[in-house]
Amino acid sequence: MRFLTTFQFADFADTLVSLFTAFVLGTLIGAERQYRQRTAGLRTNVLVAVGAAAFVDLAMHLTGADGGVRVIAYVVSGIGFLGAGVIMKQGMDVRGLNTAATLWASAAVGSCAGADMIAQAVALTVFVIAGNTLLRPLVNAINRIPLDERRSEATYYFKLAVTTEALPDMRDALVEKLEAASYLVADVDVVEIGDDILEIVATLVATAVDPNELNAVAVEMQRQNGVRHATWEVSTTD
Fold first, then answer.
1. Contact 54, 82 (CB under 8 A)
2. Which one-letter DSSP state was computed for residue 147?
3. Residue 70 pLDDT greater than 70, yes or no
4. Predicted confidence band at 149 (pLDDT cuts at 50, 70, 90)?
5. In the predicted model, is pLDDT for residue 46 greater than 90?
6. SS (H, E, C) 50-116
7. How far is CA 114 from the centre of its chain?
8. How far apart are the C-alpha atoms of 160 and 25, rounded to whole Å?
9. Residue among 123, 193, 142 nearest 164 (CA)
10. Burial letters for 39-68: b for 16+ Cβ neighbours within 10 Å, e otherwise?
11. Hey, which end of the chain has fewer CB within 10 Å, N or C?
């Protein structure tokens, strides 16, 4: 067996150090995610870190630093597919972006460990955990600040619930009223929300609006025959 003739304890010990480091640091990152009950928790982050370390360590032992660089490039792109699996779109809300970013960072930690950059891996772990914990109060404080629609950049949706018979006329009328108020419409969708009731959803081009102007359009549209309800909402999740 070639193993008996090529085995070198020093190389094996180096691999063990890399894998153990990735395991410990991945555990630290994953424990925080598990505590918060995220989609990718303890085991996922550990496996991502250890897997990245194993691939980079293998390349380093076979072809040296050049091989390690090439494998790291594949790890960076490949982890994107795993991250996409934890991103979910629910209506207009997108969830899982932070979890996907954490997986990406875990792969970076594993890559550093596999390249024998232990100190860098530890430092990166500290920053990742700090980003997921220490910044949380700041995020909550910012989120509690009242939204000023005239200054914020977001996506605005105008929704009009109408009867089936009124759909063609009200769709055109809504676009005309919005454009008359200087709000161009990027897209118009129609969603069935009940028996004989459809919802017209107009996506505005504007990234900032005057709430009073949209409220005025809503009041005017609600007076039209066949209109059951008129409202607008904002999404800042993109």
1. no
2. P
3. yes
4. low
5. yes
6. HHHHHHHHHHHHHHCHHHHHHHHHHHHHHHHHHHHCCCEEECCEEECHHHHHHHHHHHHHHHHHHCC
7. 27
8. 51
9. 193
10. ebbbebbbbbbbbbbbbbbebbbeeeeeeb
11. N
Give the pLDDT score at 112: 94
Alpha carbon dihedral 164, 168, 169, 175, in 10-degree steps, equals 120
C-alpha of 30 from chain center: 17
Task: For tokens 């875990």, name the residue.
Answer: 106
Q: Are β-strands 185-194 and 197-204 bridged in parallel, bridged antiparallel, or unpaired?
A: antiparallel
Q: Are 197 and 118 in contact (CB under 8 A)?
A: no
What are the structural domains, with CATH classification, of the chain?
2-143 (no CATH), 155-235 (3.30.70.260)
Instruction: Tell me how far apart the alpha carbons of residues 38 and 30 are, in angstroms, rounded to a whole number.
Output: 9
CA-CA-CA-CA dihedral for 211, 212, 218, 219, to nearest 10: 160
Q: Give pLDDT, residue 51.
A: 94
- Based on its alpha-carbon atoms, the radius of gyration of the chain, rounded to whole angstroms, reads 26
Residue 113 banded pLDDT, cuts 50, 70, 90 = very high
Sign of CA dihedral 191, 194, 197, 199: negative
How far apart, in whole angstroms, are the C-alpha atoms of residue 111 and residue 72?
A: 7
Residue 94 vs residue 63, higher pLDDT: 63
Q: What is the C-alpha separation between 175 and 202, in angstroms, rounded?
A: 8
Tokens of residue 167, six digits: 């759909």
